[in-house]
Amino acid sequence: MKVSDHTLFKTGAIFYLILGAGHTIGHFILSFIDRDASAAIDNRLAEMSFSPRVSILDIYQGFSLQMGVMLFFFGLLCLSIKKPSKKIFIITLLTSALSVFICFIYLPRLPQVLSSIALVAFASAFVLSIRKPIAQQ
After folding, report:
1. What are the backbone dihedrals phi and psi of residue 39, each rounded to the nearest 5 degrees, phi first?
2. Do 21 and 72 contact (CB within 8 A), yes or no?
3. Weakest-pLDDT range from 14-18, 61-65, 120-124
4. Taken in order 32, 33, 36, 40, is the CA torsion positive or negative?
5. Which residue pairs from 114-120 have beta carbons closer than 8 angstroms and sit at least 24 positions apart in sequence?
6. Closest CA to 37 of 19, 69, 3, 60
7. pLDDT of the residue at 118
8. Residue 36, exposed/middle/buried by CB under 10 A (0-12, 13-18, 19+)?
9. Distance of CA 68 to the CA centre of its chain
10. Are 79 and 10 contacting, i.e. CB atoms less than 8 angstroms apart?
11. Is the separation of the CB atoms in 83 and 6 below 8 Å?
12. Phi and psi dihedrals of 20, rounded to 5?
């Protein structure tokens, strides 16, 4: 079975959708489970000066939620591209490589696996797009 660069690009995008949705869902699940931990952190850490209600945990959770939403919409944006240009291939490849690097430093297995699959899909799509004859591009 022959797989096209377009199919591989869409596969990478789908795994970003899954990663973003999972990240966002995980954020909400953990925010309900970790109420005691949240209270303990709020009691021990100094509050940031932006607002008397914003703790370091609030900032962390805000960035976590923002990251999940951005990952999801990055995947959605990639899915909406009908014919990716070489620049788009390179941007998604570099974004995925950086994501995998960060995942392997800071995150557990599931995000590592999903990010790695997206990276392999985007890298394969890029290689196939380079190997296409000019008439097919």
Report:
1. -65, -40
2. yes
3. 61-65
4. negative
5. 114/15, 114/18, 114/19, 114/22, 115/15, 115/19, 117/11, 117/12, 117/15, 118/11, 118/12, 118/13, 118/15, 118/16, 118/19, 119/12, 119/93
6. 60
7. 92
8. exposed
9. 7
10. yes
11. yes
12. -65, -45
Please, where are the H alpha helices in the chain? Answer: 5-33, 35-44, 56-80, 86-106, 109-131
Tell me: the pLDDT tens digits for 35-71? 666 666 555 554 444 455 666 677 677 778 888 888 8
* Mean pLDDT score of the chain: 80
Closest CA to 96 of 124, 59, 69: 124
Residue 57: other Cβ atoms inside 10 A: 18
pTM flag (> 0.85): no
C-alpha triplet 84, 88, 114: angle, nearest 5°:
95
The 10s digit of each residue's pLDDT in 61-98 is 777 888 888 889 999 999 999 888 889 989 999 999 99
